[in-house]
Amino acid sequence: MIYCGIDWAERTHDVALVDDSGQLVAKRHITDDAAGYQVLLDLLAEYGDTEESPIPVAIETSRGLLVAVLRTGRRKIYAINPMAAARYRDRHAVSRKKSDPGDALVLANILRTDMHAHRPLPQDSELARAVAVLARAQQDAVWNRQQIANQLRSLLREYYPAALVAVEVWKKGLCRPEAREILRLAPTPTRAAKLTRAQLQAALKRAGRQRGIEAEVERLRDILRADWAHQPRLVEDALGTQMLALLLQLEAASKAADDLEHAVEEAFPQHPDAEIILSFPGLGVQLGARVLAEIGDDRQRFVDARGLKAYAGASPITRASGKKSSITRRWVKNDRLNHVGYLWAFSAPNASPGAKAHYRKRRDHGDWHASAQRNLFNRLLGQLYHCLQHRARFDEAIAFPAAAEALAA
Fold first, then answer.
1. Partners of 79 in beta bridges
2. Cα–Cα distance between 252 and 149 in angstroms, integer?
């Protein structure tokens, strides 16, 4: 059997092939373009790579065009963690020498000796991978929007507290289009105090508001014309210029998040698993798409529900040594899926009596809020695994039988 290791870089890649005895049988230095990819495929074919019996490949990334080319057919691609690869490197040399061809040889030997201990990339469908791209991009856009909004809030606290008081009653606060219109119209509190009713009314209409405009205008005028402390005039103008620059970034981030949200709403419902995922309490289109993005639709990826729970960081981990033993939360996990679990467990009790009863039971048992939420996420994740494996929708009576019986009684 032949094993392949690839040390990838931005412009060139090093390839190493070893046999069962660990003997280096071939090595190449290829470019990161179509010609280099063809050289790699020809090299693999020369040493027995076929559709029926492909050569496994180890590489330190799971993304990029090189991985996309290698994933054609039935070939197994193993994405090795760079930290794990560094530990394997110490097995072959104690001098800590390092080179790109040597790293490719180390990766090939990882498959030769410990392929059973590593997982190949899942064979997700093309649609599932497309949903993953959109869902992760939308999640990043939301995080980026919130980060910029926090920066803007911190800046406004220094010279423009009236703006924060004006927008605090609105959902999403500074991310609302009304807030952005008012800040663009009046970047300083001095200019805000001079706004007329007509200007405020026009700003709210430009932002898309259609109802309650007159009452909102009066509320805003009272706040903006109140007695507030001011920075010196030149400093205030400079801070207003800085605020407008942040406002442009916030508008771009908000538009990106909204556009990606619409793209997810179009792509996710087309997937066959969407109906099952959306049947669970607390999961909407955006959270459901993020769940699909992280677990995929390859049913062979996780051997059982325990593997999925460990991957999501929902199940606890036990550390035992001698007489000492402790059970703690997992720190090594899929952070994106774990973040989805926090939101899922937060909203599920509002839509499921069984989930609410389970959360209250854990709280009465002595768990903190975060621990009870994590326990609920752990249970919901196991139910999702079962439903996906058996192509069944969520059933409240089956998922939480005790709560259903109590509710019926």
1. 59
2. 12
Element (H, E) at 35: helix 34-46
Q: Residue 91, Cα to own-chain centre: how many angstroms?
A: 34
Q: Are 219 and 168 in contact (CB under 8 A)?
A: no
Buried/exposed code over 375-396 (b: 16+ C-beta within 10 A; e: otherwise): bbbbbbbbbbbebbeeeeebeb
- Greater confidence (74 vs 289) lies with 289
Each residue of 210-243: pLDDT tens digit?
A: 888 899 899 999 999 998 988 999 999 999 999 9
Strand, helix or coil at 7? Answer: strand
Residue partners of 48: CB distance under 8 A and separation at least 6: 2, 55
Q: Give me the phi and psi of 59, to 5 degrees please.
A: -150, 155
Place of tokens 């065009």: 65
Residue in the block written with tokens 């069962």: 20
Q: Please check whether residue 382 is in contact with residue 305, taking contact to mean a CB–CB distance below 8 angstroms.
A: yes
Burial of 74 per CB tally in 10 Å (0-12, 13-18, 19+):
exposed
SS3 314: coil
Read off the amino acid at residue 43: L
Based on DSSP, count helices (H) and strands (E) in the chain, helices before strands: 19, 7
CA atoms of 408 and 121, how far apart (whole Å): 46
Parallel, antiparallel, or unpaired: how do β-strands 317-321 and 77-79 relate? unpaired
- For 340-392, write each residue's pLDDT tens digit: 999 999 999 999 999 999 999 999 999 999 999 999 999 999 999 999 999 99
What is the rounded average pLDDT for all residues in the chain? 91
| Alpha-carbon span 266 to 26, nearest angstrom | 47
Distance of CA 368 to the CA centre of its chain: 25
pLDDT in tens, 275-321: 999 999 999 999 999 999 999 999 988 989 999 999 999 888 888 88
Residue 325: per-residue pLDDT: 84
Tokens of 7: 């040390």
Please state whether beta strands 317-321 and 324-328 pair in parallel, antiparallel, or not at all (unpaired). antiparallel
